[in-house]
Every structure is written in structure tokens, then in C-alpha cells.
């Protein structure tokens, strides 16, 4: 009977340690990808979980060393974004099946705002992915609705 209790105890300890590891791994290790848009190769972070999508680029001092962040969604919808705890302006680009369906250029930070006062940036049509890039990127690269983004490597 003592061996069974020891096994349960050790199993519980291992389970807790794995859970703690996974908790911190998700917060500090972000998946990455390389995408192509307007003949530019972009190295981006992937916000592929609810935590990462909520966190986004907030709290960072810049996008560097990456070119941006991509937010894939499993369902079509008009995915709204706010500048919660952002320290730099960005361009927000909404895509559907890899095609640009809308974008908000040069979205400015909103310091000293609370959740109810942030401006909500929403596309005009459904999307399944959002790409955040440094402010001015869309204008500098003459981004247009209908432009295609492709995955170069995972």
C-alpha cells in the first residue's frame, strides 16, 4: 500500500512541475514564422493562443527584433483590436485566406486609457487572420486590399 501512495505522490509532483513549465513556456516562448507580403519577407511572432492574442505586442518597447506579429483565428469574424498597454504605433492588417481585406494604418498608442475607453479597430468585413506591423509599413509598401500574404516557412 505504501508504494501506491508514493507513486501517486510522485505522479502529482511531476504533474505540477509540468504544468508550471507549460505555464511559463507559453508566456516566454512565442512561435515564429516567416511570411511574404508585397515582395517583402517578414519574420513574425505568432499569437496562437488566447493568452498570446490578449497580450499581443503590449508591454514591449518595440517590435524588434521581429518585423511583426500574426494572429490566426479559427473562426471567421470581424476581429477587433485595441492599443492596450502599447508603447509604439502600428499598422493593423486584416486578412482572409491570405488576402488583405482591410487595414488600419498608423494606429497610435492610447496611454492612460482603461478598457472601456480604448478605440476598437474593426475591419469592414470578416477576417481569419490579423497582422500587426510597424506604423508606416502599409504606406511605405503601398499596401492595398486584395494583396496576398503567403507563409514562407514555419
From TrEMBL:
Keywords: Membrane, Transmembrane, Transmembrane helix. This is DUF192 domain-containing protein. InterPro entries: DUF192, Saro_0823-like_sf. The chain crosses the membrane at residues 7-25. Signal peptide: none annotated. Gene3D superfamilies: Protein of unknown function DUF192. Pfam families: DUF192. The keyword Transmembrane applies.
